[in-house]
Amino acid sequence: MISYYKTVNGKISKIDNYEEGCWVNCVAPTESEVNFLISNFEIEPDFIRASLDEEESSHIDYEEGVALIMIDSPVVEKSGRNLTYYTVPLSIMITQQSVITVSLRQNSIIEEFANGLIRNVRTYHKTHFILYIMLRLASKYLQYLKQIDKISTHVEDELQKSMKNKELIQLLEIEKSLVYFSSSLKATKATLEKIMRGRLVKLYEEDQELLDDVLIEIKQAMEMSEIYLNILSGTMDAFASIISNNLNMVMKILASITLISSMPAIISGIYGMNTPNFPFMEYWWFPLILSGLLMLGSYIILKKKDMI
User: Fold this and answer.
1) What percentage of the chain reaches a pLDDT higher than 90?
2) Where would you tag: which of 103, 140, 187, 254 has the fewest CB atoms within 10 A of its CB?
3) Are 62 and 35 in contact (CB under 8 A)?
């Protein structure tokens, strides 16, 4: 689907047809829409193929008057009762007349611009517009990272109450999300540094401060993701040690119970043999008392050695 937007009276509004200086947004394009973009805007077919590749990483490219900026956009989806965080590629193409964005699915960041929620953004100032998209993308990373931190804290509290596989699996999912975010942010930072050189994308003096703000936000998100990832890795190792220690304690208790409970069986087995001259054979209560004394003695010894 191809939609056209333009800044009117300081607000981005949807327009019916293409105009110079407008923003062209393409979501999950069909084959005919792909051919339309290639022919009408003189875009390299490789740029479109890269835009529709889910595994494409962040980079910047330039070919025959068209600059391609590929960045990873953070996405959150609800899976049952859990939230899943990951990244999807978002391509921004800068032509001589306009800015074109292409994505495989609906993107919350692009929707905010399309719905006019971001003010004072001018679509006809192409560099200014793409930097605002990147600034909003960096803010979205920070927002999701704060959510991940709250979720991991809640899961850790639940794990302290009871060691269940559900919470452990949830922590693993959070760790995977942080790995995705960390790697995507590193690639995005490298792409922004290439933009800062001004070779592939023309930068104006008023855009430099905005680009610095984007870089600061991206670096802050990188640091947060690495800190949260290190904390979560340490937490996972600690819980693994706790679970192993709890298992050892259970095995020690079971072994101690087995040892203590085997005493009556041993005594009754000895006194049940057809062998003469056993002491106190004529007293039926003696094996019971002897078994009880041995069980008590075993319990005291094991307790002193902190085995139960």
Assistant:
1) 0
2) 254
3) no
